[in-house]
């Protein structure tokens, strides 16, 4: 079992972020007798998944939707699959855009290096 500060440290996020995820109904940690949040290994695994989704630009609203669908039970599996497939398609589009941008930057960098080399006489 982990405290909110333990989890924040383990995941490299703030306690504020954990409270925000709770407010948004993305996670529902247990509480001890004093009302303090207590997290277990399954909460950590879930939060790592949430953090990956955030890193890939999934909006909080979609993460919340996925979390709610999961809590509703197995009958929502198709809806969860659809949500993840749509997000995967979005990631693929991002990758294509980033790859094209990287190529453009590499071409521009090469042009600058070539131009500078000609100016200095260094080939």
UniProtKB/TrEMBL annotation:
Record domain HTH merR-type: where: 1-69
Keyword set includes RNA-binding: no
Record key words, sorted: DNA-binding
InterPro entries: DNA-bd_dom_put_sf, MerR-type_HTH_dom, MerR_fam
Pfam families, A to Z: MerR_1
Coiled coil: none
Record carries keyword DNA-binding: yes
The name this protein goes by in its record: MerR family transcriptional regulator
